Structures are given as structure tokens and as C-alpha cells.
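Q: Mind making up any chain with C-alpha cells?
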Amino acid sequence: MKIIVLFDGKCGICSKEIAFYKKIAPSDQFIWEDVNAINSKEKYNIELISALKHLHVIDNEKVLIGVDAFARIWKNIKYFKFLSFFIRLPLIYSLAKYAYHIFAEYRFKRLRHCQILK
């Protein structure tokens, strides 16, 4: 079963990062879904605001969000496996989750297409 990645394709940072992953990731392991092009609530039971605010990964029906989503992506990309291990170290994990939350909130508040939903 493929890993489903839900991302904000209207966000410049997000779309560039996902485009990079698409180039280097095995094509048979991922499905890349821009949440602006699908109904994430209907298709995956994930609210659009949540999907726009945080990267989501669905792997075997388990939903991973933010840092956990990145770790799952990295785990399946050859040269990024170390990052997946590193980000899970207790102190690093706590710091990364905090930093990601701050970044996600800041990014969400600054993007016009996200403000329409409030």
C-alpha cells in the first residue's frame, strides 16, 4: 500500500519541498495529494484547515501529522533515512515538534488562501 502525502500546493515552500521529494522518492511508494485539488474531508476525513496548516501522511490508515509525517516520508527515501532516525531522538523530536508548530502557525496566518477559510 502506498503512503499518501497531503500537502498545501498553493504554498510556495510546501510545493517546492514536495516537488523535490517527488524527484528523489521511489515512485511506487507515495501518492502526492494537493489538498487544494481534493476534498480532504470527504476522501480522508481530514478537515481542510488542518490539512492546509500541517503536512499529513496516511500510512496503512494511520494519520501522521507535522514532524511525524516528515519522518515517515524521510524513512522511505534512500538518503534521508538518517534524518528520520535523527528527528526521532527524544530531545531533537521535542524541539522539532515545537519549531514545526511555530512555523506552521506563522505560515498559515500569512497565506491568503488559508485566511479565506477562517
